[in-house]
Amino acid sequence: MAVNPQAMRSLLKVYFIMGSTNCCQNPENVLQAAIKGGITLFQFREKGAGCLHGKEKESLAKKLQAICKQSNIPFIVNDDIELAVKINADGVHIGQDDEAADVVRRKIGSKILGVSVHSMQEAETAIRQGADYIGIGPIYPTSTKADAKAVQGLTFLTELRSADIQIPVVGIGGITSENASPLIEAGADGVSVISAISQADSPEKAAAKLYDSVNRIMRNAH
Ligand SMILES: Cc1ncc(COP(=O)(O)OP(=O)(O)O)c(N)n1
Ligand SMILES: Cc1ncsc1CCOP(=O)(O)O
Ligand SMILES: [Mg+2]
């Protein structure tokens, strides 16, 4: 763990994830609008059919990183550890099909490390290997990730919190401002979304709605 858990929890409240293939508009405009709406953390996830590679990917990453920097929003890179180190991103997010968390921790030093987990065993390993937060999902059905695991609802999150596992947790998969409430009530520190913001007519309003609902639920639930 490299980041203070309380600081990490605040960053996870509204965690926006996006790559060029998720947007119907210019990705830089979408990110700028999402930041205006109140997102607390950003992940660059350049993945899927038609995504950018090599220099083009790096160039978009740097543009989005600069936008985040202006507003003090930490910039996380999905999967691509080399890129994260090269451009000095604030952190990385990896899953179970990516490099092992302890190997990644050694490569990134004190940057933020997020790990996707789907079971108690994976959660315990991620914690032991130095994760700052864990991502769990898909909570609800999603059409954004073709190879997503089975929908898990709130079962695993509830199991984690009942076992008194305190690591910062963010939920992912099909989350919107309308269905975020049970997730926060079950102990998540925030929501991570792709389409709820990137595909919205107004990414700014969508981000603001998510921010308001997460904060309202937190005031009542925690
Ligand atoms: C916050 C967050 N949680 C989960 C994921 C999914 O990661 P992974 O399982 O490695 O799948 P890909 O995103 O790499 O397709 C995530 N990216 N972010
Ligand atoms: C990357 C990822 N991992 C599990 S579900 C998912 C996609 C989330 O996208 P959306 O918020 O559009 O459902
Ligand atoms: Mg991954």
Automatic annotation (TrEMBL):
2-[(2R,5Z)-2-carboxy-4-methylthiazol-5(2H)-ylidene]ethyl phosphate binds at T142, S143, T144, G174, I194, S195. The keyword Magnesium applies. 4-amino-2-methyl-5-(diphosphooxymethyl)pyrimidine binds at Q43, F44, R45, E46, K47, N78, S116, K145. Pfam families: TMP-TENI. The keyword Transferase applies. Pathway: Cofactor biosynthesis; thiamine diphosphate biosynthesis; thiamine phosphate from 4-amino-2-methyl-5-diphosphomethylpyrimidine and 4-methyl-5-(2-phosphoethyl)-thiazole: step 1/1. Keywords: Magnesium, Metal-binding, Thiamine biosynthesis, Transferase. It catalyses: 2-(2-carboxy-4-methylthiazol-5-yl)ethyl phosphate + 4-amino-2-methyl-5-(diphosphooxymethyl)pyrimidine + 2 H(+) = thiamine phosphate + CO2 + diphosphate; 4-methyl-5-(2-phosphooxyethyl)-thiazole + 4-amino-2-methyl-5-(diphosphooxymethyl)pyrimidine + H(+) = thiamine phosphate + diphosphate; 2-[(2R,5Z)-2-carboxy-4-methylthiazol-5(2H)-ylidene]ethyl phosphate + 4-amino-2-methyl-5-(diphosphooxymethyl)pyrimidine + 2 H(+) = thiamine phosphate + CO2 + diphosphate. Its EC number is 2.5.1.3. Its cofactor is Mg(2+). Mg(2+) binds at D79, D98. GO terms for molecular function: thiamine-phosphate diphosphorylase activity. Residues 14-197 form the Thiamine phosphate synthase/TenI domain. Binds 1 Mg(2+) ion per subunit. NCBIfam families: thiE. Belongs to the thiamine-phosphate synthase family. Condenses 4-methyl-5-(beta-hydroxyethyl)thiazole monophosphate (THZ-P) and 2-methyl-4-amino-5-hydroxymethyl pyrimidine pyrophosphate (HMP-PP) to form thiamine monophosphate (TMP). This is Thiamine-phosphate synthase.
